[in-house]
Amino acid sequence: MQLYHHDAIEHAVRLDHDALAAVEAGFAALGRGEVVQPPILSMAIEEANGEVDVKTAHIRGAERFAIKVSPGFFDNPRLGLPSLNGLMLVFSARTGLVEAVLFDEGYLTMVRTALAGAIAAKHLARENSRRVTVLGAGEQARRQVAALRLVRDIDCVDVWARRREGAEAYAEAMRATGLEVVVHDDIPAACARADIIVTTTPSRTPLLQARDLPEGVHVTAMGSDSPDKRELDASVLTRADAFVCDTRAQSETNGELKVFAGTEVPFKVHELGRMIAEGQRLRLTEATITVCDLTGTGVQDTAIAGFALSRLAGD
Protein backbone atom coordinates (compact mmCIF):
# COMPACT_ATOMS: atom_id res chain seq x y z
CA MET A 1 0.00 0.00 0.00
CA GLN A 2 1.25 3.45 -0.96
CA LEU A 3 0.59 6.70 0.90
CA TYR A 4 0.53 9.94 -1.07
CA HIS A 5 0.10 13.44 0.29
CA HIS A 6 -1.29 16.65 -1.11
CA ASP A 7 1.88 18.12 -2.58
CA ALA A 8 2.77 14.99 -4.54
CA ILE A 9 -0.80 14.61 -5.77
CA GLU A 10 -1.03 18.24 -6.87
CA HIS A 11 2.29 17.90 -8.70
CA ALA A 12 1.01 14.83 -10.57
CA VAL A 13 -2.55 15.93 -11.35
CA ARG A 14 -3.45 19.24 -12.94
CA LEU A 15 -6.39 20.75 -14.73
CA ASP A 16 -5.28 19.48 -18.12
CA HIS A 17 -6.67 17.62 -21.11
CA ASP A 18 -5.55 14.19 -19.86
CA ALA A 19 -7.40 14.61 -16.57
CA LEU A 20 -10.43 15.93 -18.41
CA ALA A 21 -10.44 12.88 -20.68
CA ALA A 22 -10.28 10.54 -17.67
CA VAL A 23 -13.29 12.15 -15.97
CA GLU A 24 -15.20 12.34 -19.25
CA ALA A 25 -14.58 8.62 -19.80
CA GLY A 26 -16.05 7.95 -16.36
CA PHE A 27 -19.21 9.87 -17.27
CA ALA A 28 -19.47 7.96 -20.55
CA ALA A 29 -19.14 4.62 -18.73
CA LEU A 30 -21.95 5.71 -16.40
CA GLY A 31 -24.06 6.57 -19.42
CA ARG A 32 -23.46 3.13 -20.93
CA GLY A 33 -24.60 1.42 -17.75
CA GLU A 34 -21.11 0.14 -16.93
CA VAL A 35 -20.91 1.63 -13.44
CA VAL A 36 -22.00 0.37 -10.05
CA GLN A 37 -22.68 3.53 -8.04
CA PRO A 38 -24.43 3.45 -4.67
CA PRO A 39 -26.19 6.49 -3.20
CA ILE A 40 -24.17 9.12 -1.39
CA LEU A 41 -23.74 8.65 2.34
CA SER A 42 -24.18 12.09 3.91
CA MET A 43 -23.96 13.34 7.47
CA ALA A 44 -24.61 16.87 8.72
CA ILE A 45 -22.66 18.40 11.59
CA GLU A 46 -24.92 21.37 12.07
CA GLU A 47 -23.28 22.97 15.09
CA ALA A 48 -20.11 23.51 13.04
CA ASN A 49 -21.89 24.33 9.75
CA GLY A 50 -20.35 21.15 8.41
CA GLU A 51 -21.19 18.08 6.40
CA VAL A 52 -19.43 14.87 5.44
CA ASP A 53 -20.10 12.96 2.21
CA VAL A 54 -18.89 9.49 1.30
CA LYS A 55 -18.94 8.62 -2.40
CA THR A 56 -17.81 5.60 -4.37
CA ALA A 57 -18.32 3.77 -7.65
CA HIS A 58 -16.89 0.87 -9.61
CA ILE A 59 -16.39 1.12 -13.35
CA ARG A 60 -16.72 -2.41 -14.71
CA GLY A 61 -13.42 -3.59 -16.14
CA ALA A 62 -11.37 -0.96 -14.33
CA GLU A 63 -8.39 -2.11 -12.28
CA ARG A 64 -9.27 0.07 -9.28
CA PHE A 65 -12.13 1.73 -7.48
CA ALA A 66 -12.09 4.53 -4.93
CA ILE A 67 -13.99 5.47 -1.80
CA LYS A 68 -13.87 9.17 -0.99
CA VAL A 69 -14.52 10.78 2.37
CA SER A 70 -15.18 14.49 1.87
CA PRO A 71 -15.83 16.86 4.81
CA GLY A 72 -17.06 20.37 4.08
CA PHE A 73 -16.94 22.83 6.99
CA PHE A 74 -18.08 26.15 5.62
CA ASP A 75 -17.10 28.40 8.52
CA ASN A 76 -13.47 27.31 8.24
CA PRO A 77 -12.32 30.32 6.19
CA ARG A 78 -13.00 32.48 9.27
CA LEU A 79 -10.44 30.32 11.07
CA GLY A 80 -7.92 30.56 8.27
CA LEU A 81 -8.67 26.99 7.19
CA PRO A 82 -9.97 25.57 3.89
CA SER A 83 -13.67 24.74 3.80
CA LEU A 84 -13.10 21.42 2.01
CA ASN A 85 -10.87 18.54 3.04
CA GLY A 86 -10.77 14.76 2.79
CA LEU A 87 -9.02 11.76 1.35
CA MET A 88 -9.52 8.91 -1.11
CA LEU A 89 -8.94 5.21 -0.53
CA VAL A 90 -8.03 3.30 -3.68
CA PHE A 91 -8.67 -0.45 -3.82
CA SER A 92 -7.85 -3.19 -6.29
CA ALA A 93 -11.01 -4.17 -8.16
CA ARG A 94 -9.64 -7.74 -8.42
CA THR A 95 -8.65 -8.47 -4.84
CA GLY A 96 -10.24 -5.71 -2.75
CA LEU A 97 -6.86 -4.90 -1.22
CA VAL A 98 -5.98 -1.28 -0.51
CA GLU A 99 -3.50 -0.07 -3.11
CA ALA A 100 -3.14 3.52 -1.95
CA VAL A 101 -4.38 6.22 0.36
CA LEU A 102 -4.51 9.64 -1.28
CA PHE A 103 -4.35 12.33 1.40
CA ASP A 104 -5.35 14.96 -1.11
CA GLU A 105 -7.12 17.29 1.38
CA GLY A 106 -9.95 17.74 -1.11
CA TYR A 107 -7.66 18.59 -4.02
CA LEU A 108 -8.87 15.78 -6.29
CA THR A 109 -12.48 16.67 -5.53
CA MET A 110 -11.72 20.21 -6.60
CA VAL A 111 -10.13 18.95 -9.82
CA ARG A 112 -12.88 16.56 -10.82
CA THR A 113 -15.59 19.10 -9.95
CA ALA A 114 -13.98 21.76 -12.11
CA LEU A 115 -13.47 19.28 -14.94
CA ALA A 116 -17.12 18.19 -14.77
CA GLY A 117 -18.12 21.80 -15.36
CA ALA A 118 -15.80 21.95 -18.36
CA ILE A 119 -17.21 18.69 -19.72
CA ALA A 120 -20.75 20.04 -19.43
CA ALA A 121 -19.73 23.20 -21.30
CA LYS A 122 -17.86 21.17 -23.93
CA HIS A 123 -21.08 19.37 -24.87
CA LEU A 124 -23.64 22.11 -24.19
CA ALA A 125 -22.21 25.62 -24.56
CA ARG A 126 -21.88 27.43 -27.87
CA GLU A 127 -18.52 26.70 -29.47
CA ASN A 128 -17.77 30.42 -29.77
CA SER A 129 -18.38 31.08 -26.07
CA ARG A 130 -15.86 33.58 -24.72
CA ARG A 131 -17.56 35.34 -21.80
CA VAL A 132 -18.40 33.55 -18.56
CA THR A 133 -20.35 34.82 -15.57
CA VAL A 134 -19.42 33.34 -12.20
CA LEU A 135 -21.68 33.61 -9.17
CA GLY A 136 -19.44 33.15 -6.14
CA ALA A 137 -15.82 33.96 -5.47
CA GLY A 138 -14.38 30.87 -3.79
CA GLU A 139 -11.96 28.26 -5.03
CA GLN A 140 -14.44 26.61 -7.40
CA ALA A 141 -15.18 30.02 -8.89
CA ARG A 142 -11.53 30.16 -9.89
CA ARG A 143 -11.11 26.54 -10.87
CA GLN A 144 -14.27 26.35 -12.97
CA VAL A 145 -12.96 29.13 -15.18
CA ALA A 146 -9.52 27.51 -15.44
CA ALA A 147 -11.15 24.24 -16.52
CA LEU A 148 -13.46 26.02 -18.98
CA ARG A 149 -10.40 27.38 -20.74
CA LEU A 150 -9.55 23.80 -21.72
CA VAL A 151 -12.68 23.60 -23.88
CA ARG A 152 -13.59 27.19 -24.79
CA ASP A 153 -11.60 30.35 -25.59
CA ILE A 154 -12.68 32.26 -22.50
CA ASP A 155 -11.27 35.79 -22.34
CA CYS A 156 -13.70 37.69 -20.11
CA VAL A 157 -15.24 36.95 -16.70
CA ASP A 158 -18.12 38.75 -15.00
CA VAL A 159 -18.33 38.02 -11.28
CA TRP A 160 -20.87 38.56 -8.53
CA ALA A 161 -20.46 37.51 -4.91
CA ARG A 162 -22.34 38.28 -1.71
CA ARG A 163 -19.27 40.09 -0.37
CA ARG A 164 -17.95 42.81 -2.67
CA GLU A 165 -14.48 42.48 -1.17
CA GLY A 166 -14.48 38.78 -2.02
CA ALA A 167 -15.43 39.54 -5.62
CA GLU A 168 -12.68 42.17 -5.87
CA ALA A 169 -10.06 39.72 -4.55
CA TYR A 170 -11.29 37.12 -7.03
CA ALA A 171 -11.06 39.64 -9.87
CA GLU A 172 -7.48 40.53 -8.98
CA ALA A 173 -6.45 36.87 -8.95
CA MET A 174 -8.15 36.12 -12.26
CA ARG A 175 -6.70 39.18 -13.99
CA ALA A 176 -3.28 37.78 -13.15
CA THR A 177 -4.09 34.85 -15.47
CA GLY A 178 -4.65 37.18 -18.41
CA LEU A 179 -8.43 37.49 -18.24
CA GLU A 180 -10.55 40.61 -18.37
CA VAL A 181 -12.70 40.63 -15.22
CA VAL A 182 -15.68 42.84 -14.35
CA VAL A 183 -17.12 42.93 -10.83
CA HIS A 184 -20.88 43.48 -10.50
CA ASP A 185 -23.11 44.48 -7.62
CA ASP A 186 -26.13 42.48 -8.78
CA ILE A 187 -26.78 39.21 -10.58
CA PRO A 188 -28.83 40.53 -13.55
CA ALA A 189 -26.01 42.89 -14.54
CA ALA A 190 -23.41 40.14 -14.14
CA CYS A 191 -25.37 37.80 -16.43
CA ALA A 192 -26.47 40.28 -19.11
CA ARG A 193 -23.75 39.40 -21.66
CA ALA A 194 -22.89 35.86 -20.61
CA ASP A 195 -22.22 32.97 -22.97
CA ILE A 196 -21.82 30.68 -19.96
CA ILE A 197 -23.04 31.13 -16.37
CA VAL A 198 -21.49 29.08 -13.55
CA THR A 199 -23.02 29.08 -10.08
CA THR A 200 -20.53 28.11 -7.38
CA THR A 201 -22.18 29.00 -4.07
CA PRO A 202 -23.49 27.16 -0.99
CA SER A 203 -26.74 29.16 -1.25
CA ARG A 204 -29.86 27.85 0.46
CA THR A 205 -32.17 30.11 -1.54
CA PRO A 206 -32.34 30.55 -5.33
CA LEU A 207 -30.02 33.17 -6.80
CA LEU A 208 -30.47 32.87 -10.56
CA GLN A 209 -33.83 33.66 -12.20
CA ALA A 210 -35.07 32.96 -15.72
CA ARG A 211 -35.14 36.69 -16.42
CA ASP A 212 -31.35 36.74 -15.90
CA LEU A 213 -30.69 34.34 -18.80
CA PRO A 214 -29.46 35.80 -22.11
CA GLU A 215 -30.47 34.06 -25.31
CA GLY A 216 -28.30 31.03 -26.05
CA VAL A 217 -26.61 30.88 -22.64
CA HIS A 218 -25.39 27.69 -21.00
CA VAL A 219 -25.72 27.40 -17.21
CA THR A 220 -23.69 25.04 -15.05
CA ALA A 221 -24.99 24.85 -11.47
CA MET A 222 -22.59 23.06 -9.15
CA GLY A 223 -23.27 24.47 -5.69
CA SER A 224 -26.44 22.58 -4.79
CA ASP A 225 -25.18 19.21 -3.58
CA SER A 226 -27.29 18.59 -0.47
CA PRO A 227 -31.00 18.71 0.38
CA ASP A 228 -30.86 22.20 1.90
CA LYS A 229 -29.04 24.00 -0.94
CA ARG A 230 -30.48 25.69 -4.03
CA GLU A 231 -29.01 28.11 -6.54
CA LEU A 232 -31.53 28.10 -9.40
CA ASP A 233 -35.09 29.35 -9.30
CA ALA A 234 -37.59 26.87 -10.75
CA SER A 235 -38.14 29.34 -13.60
CA VAL A 236 -34.56 28.71 -14.81
CA LEU A 237 -35.26 25.00 -15.17
CA THR A 238 -38.56 25.46 -16.97
CA ARG A 239 -37.09 28.17 -19.23
CA ALA A 240 -34.25 25.92 -20.41
CA ASP A 241 -34.58 24.21 -23.76
CA ALA A 242 -32.49 21.30 -22.42
CA PHE A 243 -31.92 20.29 -18.79
CA VAL A 244 -29.03 17.93 -17.99
CA CYS A 245 -27.79 16.52 -14.68
CA ASP A 246 -25.04 14.13 -13.67
CA THR A 247 -27.61 11.73 -12.19
CA ARG A 248 -31.33 12.30 -11.98
CA ALA A 249 -31.66 10.55 -8.62
CA GLN A 250 -29.09 12.86 -7.01
CA SER A 251 -30.54 15.95 -8.62
CA GLU A 252 -33.95 15.05 -7.20
CA THR A 253 -32.62 14.74 -3.65
CA ASN A 254 -29.54 16.99 -3.52
CA GLY A 255 -29.65 19.09 -6.66
CA GLU A 256 -31.94 21.50 -8.42
CA LEU A 257 -34.71 19.02 -9.34
CA LYS A 258 -35.76 18.78 -5.71
CA VAL A 259 -37.89 21.88 -6.26
CA PHE A 260 -40.33 19.53 -8.01
CA ALA A 261 -40.44 17.01 -5.14
CA GLY A 262 -43.84 15.34 -4.98
CA THR A 263 -44.83 16.53 -8.45
CA GLU A 264 -44.05 15.49 -11.99
CA VAL A 265 -41.03 17.22 -13.53
CA PRO A 266 -42.52 19.27 -16.40
CA PHE A 267 -39.67 18.72 -18.88
CA LYS A 268 -37.39 15.99 -20.17
CA VAL A 269 -34.40 15.26 -17.95
CA HIS A 270 -31.15 14.22 -19.64
CA GLU A 271 -28.14 12.70 -17.90
CA LEU A 272 -24.66 13.94 -18.79
CA GLY A 273 -23.05 10.51 -19.09
CA ARG A 274 -25.70 9.15 -21.41
CA MET A 275 -25.58 12.30 -23.51
CA ILE A 276 -21.82 11.79 -23.94
CA ALA A 277 -22.03 8.04 -24.53
CA GLU A 278 -24.75 8.37 -27.16
CA GLY A 279 -23.38 11.52 -28.78
CA GLN A 280 -26.60 13.42 -28.16
CA ARG A 281 -26.69 17.00 -29.45
CA LEU A 282 -29.00 19.04 -27.24
CA ARG A 283 -27.92 22.46 -28.47
CA LEU A 284 -30.00 22.73 -31.61
CA THR A 285 -29.47 26.43 -32.40
CA GLU A 286 -27.35 29.35 -31.25
CA ALA A 287 -30.39 30.52 -29.25
CA THR A 288 -30.83 27.25 -27.32
CA ILE A 289 -30.62 27.67 -23.55
CA THR A 290 -29.06 24.74 -21.70
CA VAL A 291 -28.76 24.02 -17.98
CA CYS A 292 -26.58 21.37 -16.33
CA ASP A 293 -26.97 20.51 -12.65
CA LEU A 294 -23.88 18.87 -11.15
CA THR A 295 -24.18 17.26 -7.71
CA GLY A 296 -20.94 15.26 -7.84
CA THR A 297 -20.82 11.52 -8.43
CA GLY A 298 -18.80 8.59 -7.18
CA VAL A 299 -17.76 7.71 -10.72
CA GLN A 300 -15.96 11.07 -10.94
CA ASP A 301 -14.03 10.19 -7.80
CA THR A 302 -13.07 6.72 -9.00
CA ALA A 303 -12.04 8.16 -12.36
CA ILE A 304 -9.84 10.92 -10.96
CA ALA A 305 -8.37 8.69 -8.23
CA GLY A 306 -7.42 6.03 -10.77
CA PHE A 307 -5.90 8.70 -13.01
CA ALA A 308 -3.99 10.20 -10.08
CA LEU A 309 -2.59 6.87 -8.95
CA SER A 310 -1.47 6.04 -12.49
CA ARG A 311 0.40 9.33 -12.64
CA LEU A 312 1.87 8.92 -9.17
CA ALA A 313 2.98 5.33 -9.74
CA GLY A 314 4.27 6.05 -13.23
CA ASP A 315 1.96 3.54 -14.90
Give the arrangement of secondary structure elements.
Layout: E1 2-5, H1 6-12, H2 17-31, E2 35-36, E3 41-45, E4 50-59, E5 64-73, E6 87-92, E7 98-103, H3 107-124, E8 131-135, H4 139-148, E9 156-160, H5 164-175, E10 180-183, H6 187-191, E11 196-199, E12 218-221, H7 234-239, E13 242-245, H8 248-253, E14 269-271, H9 272-278, E15 290-293, H10 298-313
Parallel strand pairs: 1-7, 8-9, 8-11, 9-10, 11-12, 12-15, 13-14, 13-15
Antiparallel strand pairs: 2-4, 3-4, 4-5, 5-6, 6-7
Question: Could you describe the 3D structure shown?
Answer:
The protein is α/β, with parallel strands linked by helices. It has two domains: 2-108 and 299-313, 2-Layer Sandwich (ornithine cyclodeaminase, domain 1), CATH 3.30.1780; 120-296, Rossmann fold, CATH 3.40.50.720. It is built from ten helices and 15 strands. The strands form two sheets. Strands 10-9-8-11-12-15-13-14 form an eight-stranded parallel sheet. Strands 1, 2, 3, 4, 5, 6 and 7 form a seven-stranded mixed sheet that branches.
List keywords for this structure.
single chain; EC 4.3.1.12; NAD(P)-bd_dom_sf; seven-stranded mixed beta sheet; 15 strands; ODC_N; ornithine cyclodeaminase, domain 1; Ornithine cyclodeaminase; 10 helices; 315 residues; eight-stranded parallel beta sheet; lyase; 24% strand; Rossmann fold; 2 domains; alpha/beta
